[in-house]
Amino acid sequence: MSFRSSLILGLVAGLLFLTSTQRATAVIRDGGIDPSNLGKGEWIYSMNDATNKLGGHIASVTSEATLFQYYKSIGVRYVLIKMGTGSTPYSGCYASPHQVTANLCNIAHANGVWVFGYTRSSGADIPGESALADSCFNNGADGFDFDAEAEWETKAGNTWITNGPAQAWQLCSMVRGNWPNKFITHAPMPIIYGHFTFPYKEFGYWCDAVLPQIYHFSDARLKGSPSAAFNWSDVNFRVWQNSLYSLPTTNINGVTVNWTNAIKPIIPVQDVYGPAIPGGLLCNSSTGANPDLDVMEFIDYATADPNCVTAGGYRGVNFWRADLHGAQQFAYIQAGTSGNFPTVVNNIVMDDANATSVGPWTAVKVFDAQVINGSTSPSYIGDPAAGGSDIAPFGTNYYKITKGSGGAYMQFNPKVLTAGDYNTYQWHVNRSDASIAVPATISFDNGTSVVNVNQTTNAGTWSFIGKFPFAVGTNGYVRFSDNFPEAAGVALVDGLKMVFIPPAAVPATPSSLIATAIGNSQIDLSWHDNSTNETGFAIFRSTVNGGPYTGIATVGRNVTTFSNTNLAVGPTYYYVVRSTNYLGASPNSNQATPPIPPTITVQPQTQTVSQGGTANFTVGALGTATLLYQWSKGGTPLVNGGNISGATSTNLTLATLAQSDAGDYSVFITNSVGSTTSVTATLTVATVPPSVITQPVNKTVDAGSTVTFSVAPDGTQPLSFQWKKNGNIVLVDGANIAGATTATLTLINVLKAQEGGYSVTITNLYGNTNSQSATLTVN
Question: Which residue of 41, 174, 618, 665 has the fewest C-beta atoms within 10 A of its own C-beta?
């Protein structure tokens, strides 16, 4: 990969005329490599210089192990290591025959970094280049890149290129055929219509991704703007991708080719040349330095680019070359984010194209580019009122407005995926008429703040607005309005950046959790917030004292109440609360269960019981212990104005019922937070004349024996009995037996004269009845 003055790079504008929707095809390759989600990468030209403190800039790097440890620490996920020029292996003062060794790959993998070998491809020796790729993969590398540039064009001097498309097809299909599941890329020049003889579609068809070399100092018309170079590349790839849809399906060597399959994820390459270090390094040569801030702008604009030509956005970037980066450039690589990975909270970066405007804001186009008749060129436009100083926008344009009353504004609504604190920045270009106090209203999680932004300083980079907590979603915003003080000034809107600030620790545990029952189906919770770094609170519930608990809801930061509604009547609920942030959750708060008023689940039932019998009333109830019961009788009070003395349990038993026991009974239930009264249950005490259930039976005994006659009666108590002999009517045809006044008659030492019939008369207040006569025979 070289820094070539002939490499034409540029910017984009006027993309609206391109209507096709390009979609990059990404197949997951060996090692879990997703070409559409690569993240950050580094090009290593000389391993010897890279392991020598990364060109002298990173003191901790002194070996292969410390190199990859450092890369992992700054979020670099892959490296591209030079292993050849064409088909010739490149040792680079490090290893033989080339720098991609099995040991090196093992060390990189042990530190979680992928290794991609690359060769400065020329196509002069196709079998040789294919063999170099074989050696790359046989040594354990994860990918291979064709650094294919001007050597592949049809032009004077490139005598080996006789049919570039056919030769590119031969090379790429050969490598892919040998390694069908490996990650393969190519790194061409990005200005396709300045290099129209390069076989872009043949390389694109067989490769998994394209790494265009977006070198922003290659054309003076770019004014050294990484954003402008990015967008010029966008124009070229957009037009080229659109052109593939009109190409017919082709058959090449038995392969049916749809050329839109040459559209692959774009992983941009930036020219990061650090401060020159002449001499002293074994394989290095001195070179001109690039501004450190360009690294920051490049990686940020890759995230924000509103004209991105890869479906899902640019989710990978890489930087040429490792041992030439300065320490600050490495710091910007570390601070930038690219790709989507579970352990990384990405910076949120938005160009002004993603803001909504209200009022007479004016768009100022700074850079423009277009493809006309197969050629492309960029141009600087700018605002004449800026006097040619607005050369560093974020992207290709910015917005301005003159002084107003505050009714006009531009607003960014960032999509926040991880709640927490974010350092928030805005970008503005250099203008002498910029305001010193542009009002920025920040609406964040449970709050709003207004900050006056001075746009007369720190132009062409990110200016800090403040640190604010944002919740997940798009409800938060940053709004710039026109009510600034200068009558002849302007307010500028160009870009927004938010950088997540990880908390130092999990938040403190909430305390004083209280649960309050609201009726029978709602419980309100309140607690004390002891933390200053929470992003929210998680509420957990159980029906078992002490858990296990199940999460039921979350609330935002600084919220200390929650209502749990639509609860079932019956269970007792136990609650705990945890404060949460990016690092995790606090321990549980104290457990709280609400004091629940009594609720009757089983009502006492109305009943009819015979006089003298027993009545049982039962009630079932739920509520916070302790439940207190008091039965009472309506009508004629018995004790304490109707309360039944001692009747303080779930059951009321009334024995030996009399008519005075008849009436209405209910129970009053109380606990510490409420009370309830059951329905009224009516007791009816029935009056029943006497009857005989079991009759006396005949007996035959020997003289001198003892004889017993008995009867089982029924009827309302009290019952009286009178036994008699020889007759069923008292005192008629029979004589009452003195003293025989119970349900049992016993005759002792019977004589022959006592033979005869015996019966009993049973009497109560409601009548009388006679039993059958039982005959006694004495032998």
Answer: 618
Q: Which H or E run includes 278?
A: none
DSSP letters spanning 720-732 = EEEEEES-SBTTB
Helix, strand, or coil (residue 20): coil
Find the helix packing angle between 226-244 and 293-304, rounded to 10°.
Answer: 40
Q: What does each C-alpha distance from 593 to 109, 588, 623 come to in angstroms? A: 52, 14, 11
Polymer length of the chain: 779
Characterize 232-253 residue by residue with b for buried, 16 or more Cβ atoms within 10 angstroms of its Cβ, and e for exposed. bbbbbbbbbbbebeeeeeeeee
Q: What is the pTM of this model?
A: 0.77
CA distances from 728 to 71, 148, 698 (A): 119, 132, 15
Q: Is the pLDDT of residue 205 over 90?
A: yes
Identify the three-state secondary structure at position 230: helix
Q: Give the C-alpha separation, 401 to 433, whole Å.
A: 11
| Whether pLDDT at 77 is above 70 | yes
Alpha-carbon gap, residue 118 to 114, rounded angstroms? 13
Query: Is 733 a residue whose pLDDT tops 60?
Result: no
**DSSP-H helix ranges across 18-57:** 47-50, 53-56
238: helix, strand or coil = helix
Beta strand ranges found along 650-731 (DSSP E): 651-654, 663-671, 674-677, 681-686, 691-694, 699-701, 707-710, 712-714, 720-725
Question: Is the dihedral angle over the CA atoms 42, 45, 48, 50 positive or is it negative?
Answer: negative
Q: Of the candidates 304, 345, 340, which has an alpha carbon nearest to the alpha carbon of residue 36?
A: 340
pLDDT at 2 over 90: no
Q: How would you class 400 by CB atoms within 10 Å of its CB: exposed for 0-12, middle for 13-18, buried for 19 or more?
A: buried
Please, what is the Cα angle at 342 between 337 and 346, to 5 degrees? Answer: 25
Mean pLDDT of 113-131: 98
Give the pLDDT score at 276.
43
Please calculate the CA angle 189-193-199 and round it to the nearest 5 degrees.
Answer: 60
Q: What is the distance in angstroms between the CA of the first residue and the CA of the last residue of the chain?
A: 139
Instruction: Return the number of other C-beta atoms located less than 10 Å from residue 335's C-beta.
Output: 15
Name which of 482, 270, 261, 177 is nearest 358 in CA terms.
Answer: 482
Q: Are strands 409-412 and 356-358 parallel, antiparallel or unpaired?
A: antiparallel
User: What does the CA dihedral 720, 723, 724, 730 come to, rounded to 10 degrees?
Assistant: 10
- Number of Cβ within 10 Å of residue 522's Cβ equals 14
Q: Which tokens sit at 285? A: 């040569």
Q: What CA–CA distance (Å, rounded) separates 303 from 534?
A: 28
Q: Quick check: 5 pLDDT over 60?
A: no
727: its two tokens: 């007759």
